[in-house]
Amino acid sequence: MPATTPHATSAMPASPKPDPKPATPPRPVASLLGEDDDDDVLIDSKLFPAAKSPTADATAHATPGATPHAWQFGLITLLAKLESLRLQCAGCHYSPDADHLLDRIEAMVLSTEEFSRLHDFPDASMDTQMNALAKAGAFYATINDTRRPAPASRSLFKSMLSKMSAPEPVPGAAVRECLYLGIETLHAHFSLFTEMYRSSLKARNWVDAASSFLADFKQMARAIPEG
Description:
Blueprint: H1 66-87, H2 98-117, H3 126-147, H4 156-164, H5 172-194, H6 204-223
Helix pairs in contact: 1-2, 1-6, 2-3, 2-5, 3-5, 5-6
């Protein structure tokens, strides 16, 4: 597979500049919950059915504020899981550790898609939803092609030699391609999650945390050696 260059990704949806903070930057999963976020999110949540009363009507909502908090905590949990998987890529090399890296980036995309499927997004975000689906489709197609072994030789002698020898390593460039497509897919879903908020001001903490995660991940991807 020919070498590829890192794919450019668009910036996360802009949000107003935050108030001055201490010199020490927050961790990516920190401060996603504001002091008053009861009406921050446009949501008809399926995230945490247990939060609703067992005797409530099927269309009834949980107590005021419970649903937005559940959404926020869901984002925190997702981002923490993604950060854990990202850190498992530290110290790897693209070609020798191909299987490890491919497994981790696939787990990230799967976790993000599963979280996305738990919720019905507003009709206004349809374009963003379609973009996220398209990015995910391109990612899965590429990672499947990268993992698929070469066609078996018709020669019995060559086939026997192939079984006796070690499998050819996956080219580092192909693994890099998958990693960057995975990052693009995460970015597209993060943008979709941002559209759940009523305003850019309400989304500020989430945008800051998600942007920090993506920036750290892209920096790590650029620093991973080929072999």
